[in-house]
Amino acid sequence: MGRRYVEVFRCKKLEYYSAIANEVSQGGYFESEYRRSSPPLRPPKKPAEDKGNMEYTEVLKLRGLPYSATTEDIIKFFLEYELTEDNVHIAIRSDGKAISEAFVEFPTTEVAKTAMCKDKMTIGTRYVELFPSTPEEASRARTRGRH
Q1: Which of 26, 34, 94, 110 is disulfide-compatible with 147, CB 3.0–4.6 A?
Q2: Domains of the chain
Q3: What positions does the domain RRM occupy (predicted)?
Q4: CB of 107 closer than 8 Å to CB of 87
Q5: Any idea what DSSP says for residue 48?
C-alpha cells in the first residue's frame, strides 16, 4: 500500500472477531484515518492488557524479524537473559527460507513475562513484536520447516 508492504497472518476466529469489535467500538478507525491527507505510520495500539491477559508459558513468539536475523542476533537482543542457541528457534518454510518469526524458550514463565519489556524494540531496522506462546506452537513451527 503506497510505499509500505502489508503482512498477512493466519489468525483464530476469536482474534478476528476481537479486531472487528475493536473497529466498531473505535468508530470506524480505518475509514476515518484513510480519508486523512497523511495516513498514520501504525494503527493505534491495542490496549496494553491484550497481551497481559494472555496466558504465559516459558515461550515467547517473536514476529517481524529481519529475514537475515540469526540465532546470535536474537541472543544479543535478549542479552540480559543469558540465552543459548538451544533456547532460540527461528521459524522457516519447508524450502528453508526464514519467515520473520522465531520462538524463544526462557527458564521460567516469570522470566518470559519480564522479557516482554522488549516488545516493539528493534533488531536491525525492524521492530519486533513479542507474544506469549506455547512449547506446542514452537514445536509445530519447527516441524513445519522440516517437510
Answers
A1: 94
A2: 1-42 (no CATH), 51-144 (3.30.70.330)
A3: 62-126
A4: no
A5: T
Cβ atoms of residues 84 and 147 within 8 Å:
no
Q: Is 104 exposed, middle or buried (0-12, 13-18, 19+ CB in 10 A)?
A: buried
DSSP conformation class of 28: S
Give the H or E element holding residue 141: helix 135-144
Q: What is the DSSP letter of 147?
A: -
- Alpha-carbon distance values, 66 to 82, 86, 101, 102, 103 (Å): 22, 20, 9, 11, 14
The answer to whether the beta carbons of residues 101 and 62 sit under 8 Å apart is yes
Distances (CA, A) of 105 to 43, 123, 138, 141: 29, 18, 9, 14
